[in-house]
Amino acid sequence: MKIVKTIDEVRKIVREWRKQGLSVGLVPTMGYLHEGHASLIEASARNNDRTVVSDFVNPMQFGPAEDLESYPRDLDLDAAVVSAHGGDIIFNPEPSEMYHEGFSSFVDMTVLTEELCGLSRPVHFRGVCTVVSKLFNIVKPDRAYFGKKDAQQLAVIRHMADDLNMDIEIIGCPIIREKDGLAKSSRNTYLSDTERKAALVLSESVFLGMDMVRKGEKDSSVIISAMTAHIQAEPLAKIDYVKIVDCKSMQQITRLDRPALCAMAVYIGKTRLIDNFFTEDV
Ligand code: PAF
């Protein structure tokens, strides 16, 4: 397993692989890898001859008041996770390698981004689409792997790849949870012990919502009210949103009469966490 810092070097390595007729998977990450990322790397290693894991905390997708500076970083940890799970290279560029002076081209999207996380993080998806496009252009993978925890991101990337004729298969992988249910996230490391316990309201309310769907509830507001009440009973939790949207358009729906995504963002203290379920997975 090799750590590569420059675009030229990744391209050279991938070109050599291509000459040998090997297929390539890409797992885009911001590092501080956990079992969620490990499952993406494993999925890629299973279905491709070679796997590139990008490890880049992308400044463009953080708003001015967000956690860019404090976002956890540990390249040694990442290297251990990537080699243990079958990755071949880590692409870990400096911001100046990805965004040279005078950088001024962006990939933006006018649909799918105005609801859910897009509402409270207005620059986020422009940053995600731009960096993921760049990674796709640099690595030119056959397949790219993303977690379903970032469900809106997955929908946005699928849409972008389709709109811009990117010849890459986009693969969504299941949410990986801690034993007690909390969805794995690099941001969980921000939580104190008390906050870590309080954070369980996210997964508990996801399981509550899933149960209601399983029992046949079709009224979005009934499900949202029950989930919201559960979260609000936790004093350390502050809801950003709990919403049910159409899986394709990411627009809110009042009845579960088509495949839907129930998604939430909740602050536990200062840490903003997300979780969700797809009605199709219930
Ligand atoms: O999901 C993430 O970690 C990031 O948004 C991504 C896709 C690596 C782009 O920076």
The residue fraction in helices comes out at 25-40%
Poorly predicted ranges: none
Arithmetic mean of pLDDT: 98
What does the overall shape look like?
A: globular
Q: Compute the separation of the termini in Å.
A: 38 Å
Output the radius of gyration: 19 Å
Cofactors, ions, other ligands: pantoate
Strand content: 15-25%
Beta-strand segment tally: 9
> How are the strands of the largest sheet arranged?
1-4-3-2-5-6
Annotation field: number of helices: 10
Q: How would a textbook summarize the main sheet? A: 6 strands, parallel
Structural class: alpha/beta
Q: What's the SSE pattern?
A: EHEHEHEHHHEHEHHHEEE
Q: How would you characterize the overall build of this protein?
A:
- There is one protein chain.
- 38% of the residues lie in helices and 20% in strands.
- Helix 6 (124-139) crosses helix 7.
- The strands form two sheets. It has a six-stranded parallel sheet with strand order 1-4-3-2-5-6, with helices on both faces. It has a three-stranded antiparallel sheet with strand order 7-8-9.
- It has helices spanning 7-19, 35-47, 75-84, 95-98, 117-120, 124-139, 151-163, 193-198, 200-214, 220-232; strands at residues 2-4, 24-29, 50-55, 89-91, 143-147, 169-173, 237-246, 260-268, 271-278.
- Strand 5 (143-147), helix 7 and strand 6 (169-173) form a beta-alpha-beta unit.
- The mean pLDDT is 98.
- The protein is built from ten helices and nine strands.
- With 282 residues, the chain is an alpha/beta fold.
- It binds pantoate.
- Residues 28-30, 58, 61, 128, 131-132, 150, 153 line the site of pantoate (PAF).
- Pantoate binds at residues 28-30, 58, 61, 128, 131-132, 150, 153.
